[in-house]
Design goal:
metal-binding; 388 residues; globular; four-stranded parallel β-sheet; lyase; cytoplasm; iron
Length: 388
């Protein structure tokens, strides 16, 4: 019987305040975050932004307890998944691979090879596919396996997206219902789905299916919930000068307040674990906007985390993937007619869909400074000798 492994992919985050600087450097070293015309500029700019913004970033993490809970929650999800699969008669090894912090994807792949895993299920913890989340992780896997074929298991299969999975839809509906039932008039409360946004060009020019999958997922959750409540879908975490998917969360909240909505349940639809964008952006920033707009009762549905029904969903995904023909990384790039694994390369600032929101905002400061320097020949990069 072959040795089976499951690789859970996620973004990662600093575990403690001392990790924030290195985490920022890793984040901004990725050309998916800031795309530059010259690759040699990437790491110097990442170092500059991380060096100048670490203290500010640490202050944001202090608001949510001094570090990201993402690793702890993801590892707990992995342990619960392992037990659930064992109960179903399927023994597996679970691995966690993060993009920007420990345990890195590179560490997970090395351990998978050491454990002599023969059959690997690659499961990104992003329900909806985007070229900048699941796609980014898939590109890294492909690169690692091309550079060292000995690291690649004998067989593997990829689960590119899974937003239609019935148990996932059910747990989302249950989490929403729990919050609705705490409202004075449950059927009158407005359900507000907030998804992480992406630049509009990702969808229109790069063929990213993310917007379509988010819209379908929202409709499926509402069908599963089977309640009469009105609902809105909006996109959070917009940064930079380019147009992102609309409506923007802050604008939609203000509009609902102007319409007289008093009770709202916010649903972080594109997140399966609590992290900076739920605990800080939604719970603090968007709550303040909502209250200033006249929305008196602001509630938020929890992320699925380790909810038993969510773990059941992950287990069903793994079992189903093992029973079907393998789905390869090359196929993930062709899921939709126009999908490209890489967005267009040009002078445009972009951010991964699950990146920590305030990190994106401060990155814009570094990008603007770089633009000024390249155009005028003056600025901080010249003063410290990074640019001639």
């Amino acid at each position: 019987m072959s040795r089976v492994g499951v690789l859970l992919l996620n973004l990662g985050g600093p575990d403690k305040l001392e990790d924030v600087g290195p985490f920022l450097y890793n984040l901004f070293s990725d050309p998916e975050i800031i795309r530059l015309p010259f690759r040699w500029l990437q790491k110097p700019l990442a170092w500059l932004i991380a060096s100048r913004r670490t203290k500010t970033s640490q202050a944001n993490y202090k608001q949510i307890g001094g570090g990201s809970p993402l690793r702890r929650i993801t590892e707990a999800q992995g342990q619960a998944l392992k037990q659930q699969l064992a109960d179903l008669g399927q023994e597996v090894n679970i691995y966690v691979g993060m993009r920007y912090w420990h345990p890195y994807t590179e560490e997970a792949i090395a351990q998978i090879a050491q454990d002599k895993i023969e059959n690997l299920v690659v499961l990104p913890l992003y329900p909806q596919f985007s070229i900048s989340t699941s796609g980014s992780s898939f590109r890294l896997l492909e690169k690692l396996w091309q550079e060292n074929p000995e690291l690649q298991p004998h067989d593997y299969t990829v689960i590119p997206s899974w937003y239609k999975q019935p148990s996932y839809l059910r747990v989302m509906a249950e989490l929403i219902a729990q919050e609705l039932d705490q409202c004075p008039n449950p059927d009158q409360a407005h359900i507000f789905f907030s998804a992480h946004g992406v630049p509009k060009s990702y969808v229109e020019e790069a063929g990213d299916p993310y917007e379509q999958e988010i819209e379908e997922c929202t409709a499926l959750i509402m069908q599963t919930l089977h309640r009469p409540n009105l609902y809105t879908l909006a996109y959070q975490s917009r940064v930079g000068p380019v147009e992102w998917l609309q409506p923007y969360t802050e604008d939609a909240l203000e509009q609902l307040g102007a319409q007289g909505v008093k009770d709202i349940v916010v649903v972080p639809i594109s997140f399966v674990s609590e992290h900076i964008e739920t605990l800080q952006e939604i719970d603090l920033e968007y709550r303040e906007i909502a209250e200033e707009s006249g929305i008196d009762n602001f509630r938020r549905a929890s992320a699925p985390n380790t909810h038993p029904v969510f773990i059941k969903a992950l287990a069903e995904l793994v079992i189903d993937a093992l029973d079907k023909p393998s789905f390869k990384l090359s196929q993930a790039a062709q899921m939709k007619k126009r999908v490209k694994m890489y967005p267009q390369e040009n002078w445009e600032w972009g951010m991964t869909t699950s990146a920590e929101v305030w990190n994106g905002r401060i990155a814009m400061l570094g990008f603007i400074a770089l633009m000024i320097e390249l155009v005028t020949g003056h600025g901080l990069l010249h003063l410290i000798g990074i640019l001639p």
